[in-house]
């Protein structure tokens, strides 16, 4: 009887171990099954280390790239290939944001029931929100200069343009030496950070509006220079005279925003930089952006330059695009996406507020309205509406000093105040000079392609 009892206990223990094992396996299968399936040793998915499944299309159904057993096939247009190289990737898998690295799970068509099995064994097609013709227009507008352009729908989050330069033809890649400093493999839109210059004044202005009782009435007399002693000063290209917040943003007065930063203090600037999402990484369908970095001195000239967008300020272009999108959208930022729903069920799920479009309140609605009005005034009274024919545009330029003998980086950020074309944008031309003239002209060419497509 004792033997039977012992055997029963042993069987019970073995059954418990089996149940625990099945539970652990089931958890790992559901949690990591896609990683197992996409492992490069899986011969159903890879041949000689190259992904053989899946195709990539733009929002209009234009083929951008297809994986085959004989390698990657790209779009026939060399301009489109160059414009979208940082999202299609290249044959040597050098681009971290390339589709075969970022969208592996989508391409192999993995699911819990069928694994990677499909009737034709070709994998799945992925359709992007990008418009290849708009991206081609952005690439041509750069004319070989370094930088990036991003455009997205600030109501739906769909990115329609994402171009990084320098680039190359993935069908005919160049020989790139190990000591190359061009950053050609880097997707500047998602993976880079840059000195923002005066576009950061939008954050300083928002902090002022929401924390200072005299935000709209506080004035200074700009003489073109504020001396902080010991050879430290904040300068402008010219004296602006008496300026308030609206006028200071319009003429991008460094003296005003430097003293405003001191008035706000480093703690408030840090809070509003965080609220603006500039220190966070954004997940764009698995492509994670590089977070910005900032220092917040206690006071003095360094705090002044921080509020102006200099000192140690570094921002990511995608994050800045989302912030100006929030200004356009009543203070609520819609997080960007680059992959369109692939089925009816996915399209319905994407509309759910919890599962689908993700949003973040960055500033108050009244603050957004004020900044929108000021940014519209920037265009009318400073940059010139004739630079953007037919466009209802609200914008802020930036001329970011980068040190040494290098020309400043040129920025232009903003949005279209247009119900039929609700698009926010960011343009960065590295060492391009003045923001409004250099980056503004690129923005116009891209936005004209957007509204006339």
UniProtKB/TrEMBL annotation:
Q: Name the source's superkingdom.
A: Bacteria
Instruction: State any single GO MF term.
Output: penicillin binding
Q: Which GO terms describe its biological process?
A: cell wall organization
Domain (Penicillin-binding protein transpeptidase) spans 147-448
- Database matches in InterPro entries: Beta-lactam/transpept (IPR050515), Beta-lactam/transpept-like (IPR012338), PCN-bd_Tpept (IPR001460)
Which GO cellular component terms are attached? plasma membrane
* Descriptive protein name: Penicillin-binding protein
Q: What organism is listed for this UniProt entry? A: Candidatus Allocopromorpha excrementigallinarum
Question: Source taxonomy lineage?
Answer: Bacteria, Bacillati, Bacillota, Clostridia, Eubacteriales
């Amino acid at each position: 009887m004792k033997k039977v009892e012992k055997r029963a206990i042993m069987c019970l223990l073995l059954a418990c171990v089996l149940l625990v094992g099945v539970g652990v396996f089931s958890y790992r299968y559901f949690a990591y099954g896609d990683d197992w399936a996409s492992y490069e040793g899986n011969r159903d998915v890879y041949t000689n280390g190259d992904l053989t499944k899946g195709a990539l299309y733009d929002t209009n159904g234009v083929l951008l790239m297809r994986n085959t057993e004989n390698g990657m096939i790209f779009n026939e247009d060399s301009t489109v290939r160059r414009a979208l190289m940082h999202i299609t990737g290249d044959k040597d898998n050098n681009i971290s944001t390339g589709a075969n690295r970022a969208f592996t799970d989508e391409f192999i068509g993995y699911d819990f029931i069928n694994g990677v099995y499909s009737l034709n064994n070709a994998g799945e097609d992925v359709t992007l929100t990008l418009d290849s013709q708009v991206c081609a227009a952005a690439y041509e507008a750069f004319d070989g200069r370094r930088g990036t352009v991003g455009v997205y729908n600030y109501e739906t989050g769909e990115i329609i343009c994402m171009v990084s330069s320098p680039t190359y033809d993935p069908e005919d890649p160049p020989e790139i030496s190990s000591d190359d400093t061009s950053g050609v493999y880097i997707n500047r839109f998602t993976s880079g950070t840059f000195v923002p210059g005066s576009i950061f004044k939008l954050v300083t202005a928002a902090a002022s509006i929401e924390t200072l009782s005299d935000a709209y009435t506080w004035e200074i007399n700009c003489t073109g220079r504020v001396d902080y002693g010991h050879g430290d000063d904040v300068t402008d290209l010219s004296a602006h005279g008496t300026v308030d917040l609206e006028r200071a943003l319009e003429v991008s007065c460094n003296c005003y925003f430097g003293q405003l930063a001191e008035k706000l203090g480093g703690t408030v600037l840090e809070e509003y930089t965080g609220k603006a999402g500039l220190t966070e990484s954004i997940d764009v369908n698995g492509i994670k952006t590089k977070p910005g970095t900032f220092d917040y001195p206690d006071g003095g000239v360094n705090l002044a330059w921080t509020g102006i967008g200099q000192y140690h300020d570094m921002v990511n272009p995608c994050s800045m695009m989302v912030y100006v999108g929030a200004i356009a959208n009543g203070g609520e930022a819609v997080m960007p996406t680059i992959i369109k729903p692939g089925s009816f069920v996915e399209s319905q799920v994407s509309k759910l507020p919890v599962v689908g479009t993700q949003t973040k309140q960055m500033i108050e609605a009244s603050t957004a309205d004020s900044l929108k009005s000021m940014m519209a005034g920037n265009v009318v009274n400073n940059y010139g509406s004739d630079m953007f024919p037919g466009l209802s545009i609200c914008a802020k330029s930036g001329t970011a000093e980068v040190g040494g003998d290098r020309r400043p980086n040129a920025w232009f950020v903003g949005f279209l105040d247009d119900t039929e074309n609700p698009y926010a944008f960011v343009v960065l031309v590295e060492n391009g000079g003045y923001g409004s003239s250099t980056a503004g002209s690129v923005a116009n060419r891209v936005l004209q392609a957007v509204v006339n497509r």
